Fold:
Amino acid sequence: MSTARVMANVVLMWDDAITEIAATHIQTHSDETSGFAAENLLDSDRQTCYKASNTGDANVVHVRFDLGAIYSIAGFSIHNHNAGTKGVSNILVKASNDIDEGFTKATYDVSTYVGDDDFFHYFDSASSRRYWKIDFQSVDSAGLYIGRIGLWQSAYQLSRGIMPGSSKGYSHLEDVLTTKGGINHRISRGGLKRHFTGLVDTSSAAELAELEALIEHTEVNHKPFCTSWPGGTTSYTGANIYGAGVHAVIDAERWEYIMQVAGRGAPYLPIIEEL
Structure:
């Protein structure tokens, strides 16, 4: 099974149209499994899943979101899914301003680029549409599930990427119980969470303003966002800014940056995966 690529780019996407626009609803979807309704995709919890009960017409499973009005969408992401395990050939993102198929905004080859990983795509150009349909092609058996789909209205790629001093890794909650004989029993609670602390060289006041917009929208309002999982050796541009994504929150009791002249700063951006 392939793994969504880790890239050098640091991309941030926030302001999700699906969970943050009150009028958004699911206009249509393939058959669902009892207890795993498609409406689970309308919340920001990636653990509440929609699960398809069959392969759908011509082995295509779909879900279409009606945002209630036309909004500009800058990026797409999908989290906690098993498209690779279920043999999905391609994931298609379609958009329209009436209830038809519209145009295909993006196509992702699952075996090559996605697998079962959390995945994101920062579009090379935003699209203003009301209806957004996600197709999963060639589903080979029932039980395809998706925990979260993001249609992000705001996105930004950091111009300088990762600087020396940045770090990333994994963390989890663990209890250690020691017996009278000195034997340790380790009990882990929850899964491993990816975390990233990036030192960002904001070479312009505009870049710092974008980071502040992210912080004010997500941290102040306690909302998750999507970021690339940085660390690869290649920066991707144009229509190819896609790869491993992280459903994240800011991991800090306070967020601050070192003040410099002309509104410039060198902030640490502490991020932890939101499971």
